[in-house]
Design goal:
The chain is mainly α. The chain has helices spanning 2-14, 45-51, 62-76, 87-103. α2 (45-51) packs across α4 and α3 (62-76) runs antiparallel to α4. Mean pLDDT is 77; it is low at 34-39.
Length: 104
């Protein structure tokens, strides 16, 4: 009947797609096994400035930090075409640049 058809449409509409095909994975914070390379190393402000290719004598203004971070992130991002053949090294460098910017 018409009411049954409406109910079927509603069930199809509200049913999540693809949930039955693959099991749900726990969030990254709940996973027990973590690769050793994923643990961030502590970074000093001197190393942070060097990672952003800035002079290490003093901390520059925020606008200069943002510009240097943007430039460094574009240079070493693992998804950039120039880094396709060195994914692991680019990922490590990108994480170091991100940690440097977060520190400063």
């Amino acid at each position: 009947s018409r009411q049954q058809q409406q109910q079927q449409r509603q069930q199809q509409y509200h049913q999540p797609r693809g949930e039955q095909q693959r099991p749900r994975q726990p969030p990254p914070s709940a996973r027990s096994e973590r690769p050793a390379a994923a643990v961030p190393m502590p970074i000093t402000s001197h190393a942070a400035l060097a990672a952003l290719q800035l002079p290490t004598s003093s901390v520059p203004p925020l606008a200069d930090l943002k510009a240097a971070y943007r430039k460094a992130a574009l240079r070493c991002h693992p998804d950039r075409p120039q880094n396709r053949d060195r994914q692991d090294a680019a990922t490590a460098e990108f994480q170091r640049v991100k940690a440097a910017f977060d520190l400063l």
